[in-house]
Amino acid sequence: MSNTTKKIDYQCNHCGSSDLLFDAWAVWNAEEQRMELETTFAMTFCKKCDGETHENEISYNPEVTV
Fold first, then answer.
1. Residue 8 phi/psi, 5° resolution?
2. What are the mean pLDDT values of the chain's consecutive 10-residue runs (66 residues total)?
3. For residue 27, which of 15, 41, 38 has the smallest C-alpha distance?
4. Structural domain tally of the chain?
5. pLDDT at 66
6. Positive or negative, the Cα torsion across 64, 54, 47, 34?
7. What is the pLDDT, as a whole number, of residue 24?
8. In angstroms, rounded to a whole number, what is the distance separating the alpha carbons of residues 40 and 18?
9. Would you say residue 65 lies in a domain?
């Protein structure tokens, strides 16, 4: 059976980089021994542009080469 779930990625709307940081809160799950994402916020930071940006959602397909 094939996995038909659509995968996505995010890119900077200024430069197209996917090297983004998202503003969020995480909580510690002691039983699982890991952080879990609780809330995300609107702010996104592009490491390539070195500044705040807005992200564009794109389809993710690692098998396709451009």
1. -125, 165
2. 79 97 97 97 96 95 67
3. 38
4. 1
5. 53
6. negative
7. 96
8. 17
9. no
Structural domain includes residue 1: no
pLDDT confidence of residue 1 = 47
Distance between alpha carbon 13 and the CA centroid of its chain, in Å? 13
Q: Kindly state the tokens that stand for 66.
A: 């451009």
Give, as one character, the DSSP assignment of residue 5. P
Strands (E), 1-66: 8-12, 20-29, 34-46, 51-53, 55-59
| HSE of 64, CA atoms in CB hemisphere, 13 A | 4
Give the span between the Cα atoms of 16 and 20, in whole angstroms.
Answer: 10
Q: Which amino acid is at 36?
A: E
- What is the residue whose two structure tokens read 């592009």? 46
Q: Which domain holds residue 23?
A: 8-59
